[in-house]
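This entry is retained here.
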Amino acid sequence: MGVLIAQDLEPYSPTLSVAAIRREAEILLRLCGVAERELSLLFTSDGRIAELNRTWRNKPGPTNVLAFPMADEDSQECEAMLGDVIISLDTAAREAAVDNITLHQRVTFLLIHGLVHLLGYDHERSDQELARMEAEEQRLLAALQREKRRGKMVRLAVNVDHMATLRQARGGVEPDPVQAAGICELAGAVGIVVHLREDRRHIQDRDVILLRQTVKTKLNLEMAASAEIIAIALKLLPDMVTLVPEKRQELTTEGGLNVAGQKKKLASVVAKMSKAGIPVSMFVDPDPRQILAAREIGATFVEIHTGRYCDAKTTADREHEFDLIAQAATTAFEAGLRVCAGHGLNYLNTGAVANLGTIEELSIGHAIMARAILVGLDQAVREMLALLG
């Protein structure tokens, strides 16, 4: 039957990716052996769940989750319905902040808690029933994570630009980004990323020529849609190119490409690369309009810009940016695009993005190179891979 999701929120209520929660709910129904039954899921506010709590449980104030099973109904229509789970996003957000987890993680657990109630478990009956219910919740949580990762292990591509940045600081020959790329591959990276900028501030022409000859996994050339770099790419024939915006004065790429605003120009680049057998990715902000524009002009991939999520200073801002990434990744995946993500990801914030299930590859550079100064490049890559599962 499926999962029906509705939202009854007040202004300024927290939000999350409905598409990601729907996917998890569908997996959970299958894990519980009730995939043929219908689950109704409502996201609401503290004020509205407090009304339900008072009306149906004779208890004051809000709660995090309520569950109303349909098992007692005897009509054929009701037999097909499992019941209703109602979650207060206000309460869930506060609990997530206390536990130092994402809103999505907390809502996932509350969904499981409500679903287990619908299946007949009740922690208020006895301590024995409480233990039984908690065990079932942990079993489902672990099984859900396995299902989300099954066949969807996130790959790691390492950007070695900052090895070249360090080299260029002295104008010498070391450290060599070509050597660094080899170490990253040996440590388990599935791709090497370099950005050949028009001003050649870090990666040089010599680097990309040698990398094309030595990289054994996949060489992803980040580039602006400029005539000079396009010509180099067509001669070099990397395994893929990622079109990015480029400003002379920026320290690093500051945002996503405005694909929707320059479709004619970018479509021409995609056509040239496609003719040469080079897949094209568009580096875009988590904006559905940009993602759909990338599909329209023939891109094979999108790489979702994670910079605002990584730079967020407050929990609320971080949750908001994460939800935008989750929604954008789902939009891209459902549009038939292959989905990557990157920019600003580090050893603390990567796990949540890697766990979305719709992203197949992360591009990470600065954090790994910074860690490598302390523990060595091989170890730094292996530590990041461990975070990706």
The two ends are 32 Å apart (CA to CA). Residues 127-149 form the longest helix (23 residues). The chain has a mean pLDDT of 90. The domain at 2-149 is CATH 3.40.390.30 (Collagenase (Catalytic Domain)).
